[in-house]
Write a structure and sequence with these properties.
This protein is 47% helix and 0% strand. It has 6 helices and no strands. The longest helix has 15 residues, at 2-16. It starts with a helix and ends in an 18-residue tail after the last helix.
């Protein structure tokens, strides 16, 4: 499940960084002008799933768009235990075998 949540939020960040004229971005922010949803339990929309996933990860939903525009910071929010998000102290404690990888550090506050 957590992999699906991370993939969902990663896609959301990707769509947020797209140009305004791209179709996925237009669909994300669009609303129906007319029509109704069924009285029964409505099917979940992408927006509903995103809200639920952000809640599960305790993410601030008020300013997600600002956070998503910063790609590296967004990935750190989604995958806080990722090697991409280590600070300098954590880097020193990494094993020598993984020290050959290139790391991108995210110490900024979002």
């Amino acid at each position: 499940k957590s992999i699906l949540i991370k993939m969902n939020l990663r896609w959301l960040g990707h769509v947020e960084r797209m140009d305004h004229n791209r179709l996925p971005r237009q669909l994300l922010y669009s609303q129906l002008k007319e029509g109704k949803r069924n009285q029964e339990r409505p099917e979940l929309r992408f927006k509903d799933t995103v809200k639920r996933n952000m809640k599960k990860l305790d993410m601030n939903r008020a300013n997600w768009q600002k956070n998503a525009r910063n790609r590296d910071g967004w990935i750190c929010l989604i995958r806080p235990k990722s090697t991409d998000c280590y600070d300098d102290d954590d880097k020193m404690s990494m094993s020598k075998a993984s020290h050959t990888k290139e790391y991108h550090f995210c110490n900024q506050e979002l």
